[in-house]
Write a structure and sequence with these properties.
This protein is of the alpha/beta class. The protein has 14 helices and 15 strands. It folds into 2 domains: about 140 residues, Aspartate Aminotransferase, domain 1; about 270 residues, Aspartate Aminotransferase, domain 2 (3-Layer(aba) Sandwich), CATH 3.40.640. Bound molecules: pyridoxal-5'-phosphate. Pyridoxal-5'-phosphate binds next to helix 5 and helix 6.
Length: about 425
């Protein structure tokens, strides 16, 4: 695509955009009486206008039916987790039975590690990315300790080569190969939250399996952002939150995926609760846990319906969009942001550089812009002008630069948003 550094160009792109009407389905936060330019959908997605309506429907059902709401009303609560299943499965490229919405991301990570991290004296290591999101680090560390192993020995962190910011697939594969016999699990992000790097999940899964390990991914920054084929890639398990690119509201319920080959595997250990119990006999309250088939068998508690209603709203919006068109727009929009940033950096000689992969196949919509000097000042100026991005401090010890992360989200961001960002960034950098 031929880009141009002009407002007219940006406006023409918005006019020609066949997905532009989706923006109207969201509430856009305001800054001094105008829509902000919102680039933090990677952190908290915007609110779909129908979210409140769907949540209120459940308040009404509760008022009208009381406990009977479990079986009465438009969406009986007993079955509520099933209403989002099909659409969520489409988003991650799985069968409906492989997916369930429940708990929160970190809780689901722990639950699935109970089943899929089963270390032995011979095979106990976990490969993960260095600088993983803190919650993931703590989950891995404490799981390892729970099994009586030493995290320093058991957790192998993949770090970029000296002077680089991204992981090379060849290095990931080499590390898997090197620890092969001792490797119990490969567990890493699908899209790295700091750099925006999209990993080759299929290749990593194949390599992990070849080494005799299980493979899981944290898709917090991938679900709703990049095309996923968990089932076909043979991924063993995955978890993700729904409040980033899936727009379901702060801290809302999370997704969990378990490959079909485990749907009916009684040998898997798990931490169970009554909602994972075979639904036909759940209310007989019998002794002895008999799981539901598939991902549903990992549920613990009855559905948090008020929260699930907001997930439902998110799914209804996403259901209306053709995922291929969404990805196409995403590539164009993020490509435009990249073009503008690179152009203005070349023009001004600013000490700033995008560290996210240049290859569009190796990223989603997020770009991470490393700023050498006074990045937080740049960030503050952008904020002052109604540009919502985030600033992550660097870490000198491991060579991490401070970055501004921006995520032009194709569902609600416009080319004009991206253009305004560039204009304000140029002003802030000079
Ligand atoms: C956002 C995010 C989380 C957040 O975990 P919660 O349990 O939802 O608080 C965890 N891991 C990664 C990689 C994330 O991006």
């Amino acid at each position: 695509m031929q880009y141009a550094y002009s407002k007219t160009f940006a406006r023409q792109q918005d006019k020609a955009d066949e997905l532009s009407h989706f923006r109207n389905m969201f509430h856009i936060p305001q800054h001094q009486g105008r829509d902000v330019h919102y680039f933090t959908g990677n952190s908290l997605g915007l609110q779909p206008k129908i979210a409140k309506e769907l949540v209120l429907e459940e308040f009404d059902a509760w008022a009208e039916y009381g406990v009977e709401g479990h079986f009465e009303g438009k969406r009986p609560w007993f079955h509520y987790h099933k209403f989002t299943k099909g659409m969520m499965a489409r988003i991650v490229g799985a069968l409906a039975s492989e997916v369930v919405v429940m708990n929160s991301l970190t809780v689901n990570l722990h639950l699935l590690m109970v089943s899929f991290y089963r270390p032995t004296q011979q095979r106990f290591k976990i490969i993960t990315e260095a600088g993983a999101f803190p919650s993931d680090q703590y989950a891995l560390e404490t799981q390892v300790r729970f099994h009586g192993f030493d995290p320093d020995e058991a957790i192998i962190e993949l770090a970029p080569r000296a002077g680089e910011h991204l992981l090379r697939t060849e290095d990931i594969l080499e590390t898997i190969d090197r620890h092969g016999e001792q490797l119990a699990l490969v567990m890493m992000g699908g899209v790295q939250y700091f750099t925006g790097q999209l990993f080759d999940m299929k290749t990593i899964t194949d390599a992990g399996h070849a080494a005799g390990a299980t493979v899981g991914f944290d898709l917090a920054h991938a679900a709703g952002n990049v095309p996923l084929q968990l089932h076909d890639w043979n991924v063993d398990f995955a978890v993700w939150c729904t409040y980033k690119y899936l727009n379901s509201g702060p801290g809302n319920l999370a997704g969990a995926y378990v490959h079909q080959r485990y749907a009916n595997d009684p040998s898997l250990p798990r931490f169970a609760g009554w909602w994972g119990y075979n639904e036909q006999q759940r209310f007989m309250m019998r002794k002895g846990f008999v799981p539901m088939l598939g991902a549903d068998g990992w549920q613990l508690s009855n559905v948090n319906v008020l929260s699930a209603a907001a997930v439902m709203a998110s799914m209804e919006v996403l259901h209306k969009v053709d995922p291929r068109k969404l990805r196409r727009k995403s590539l164009a929009l993020t490509g435009y942001a990249e073009y503008l940033i690179n152009t203005l950096v070349a023009k001004t000689g600013a000490k700033a550089r995008i560290i996210t992969p240049e290859n569009p196949e190796e990223r989603g919509c997020q770009l991470s812009l490393a700023i050498e000097e006074q990045g937080n000042k740049v960030f503050e100026q952008l904020t002052h002008h109604g540009i919502v991005v985030d600033w992550r401090e660097g870490n000198l010890a491991d060579g991490r630069p401070g970055v501004i992360r921006l995520a032009p989200v194709p569902l609600y961001n416009t080319f004009a948003d991206v253009y305004e960002f560039a204009v304000k960034l140029e002003a802030a950098l000079t």
